[in-house]
Amino acid sequence: MKRTMNLMAICMPILIAVNGNVQAAAKPTPAISYSIAVPDWTKSSTGTWAGMKDGKTYWYKLDKKAGLWWSTDGKKWAEVKDGAWADKEGKWLKIHDKKLVWSTDGKAWSEVPEWKWEGSDGKWYKFDAQWGLWVNQ
Fold it and tell me: Among candidates 82, 83, 43, which has minimal Cα distance to 63?
């Protein structure tokens, strides 16, 4: 019985090819390919990111003590008293206890994973441990 099975295993591909079913026998199994997009992070040359408030775009930046500043034109800057800005989805972000945190209601705050968020301009931003700003281009 074992010999018969071995013989069939050897002869079957030959019979298929001889009978004209070469394409069916030689057809490769489609490979499944997964690609994971690895973002290209570059240090921001301006140190600014886009945010929204009341439907208007603002530019934000941090000072040397991680204090938040904003501008509508990138020239005149004012300190943000509550220290918060909104991301693309409308979550509020701020720096609290040397961590980047966010909230949907302004009451319950949790640390932002990897300290990254999507700005209102559709770009991704993140802070490093020294509050340097990085952008995904």
Answer: 83
Is 70 exceeded by the pLDDT of residue 79? yes
CA pair distance 7, 10, nearest whole angstrom: 5
Gap between the Cα atoms of 84 and 35, Å rounded:
35
- Give, in order, the Cα–Cα distances in Å from 82 to each of 13, 57, 124: 74, 17, 23
Say which residue the tokens 């979550």 belong to: 91
Supply the pTM of this predicted model: 0.68
CA-based torsion, 107, 113, 115, 119: positive or negative: negative
Give the pLDDT confidence score for residue 2 in this predicted structure: 56
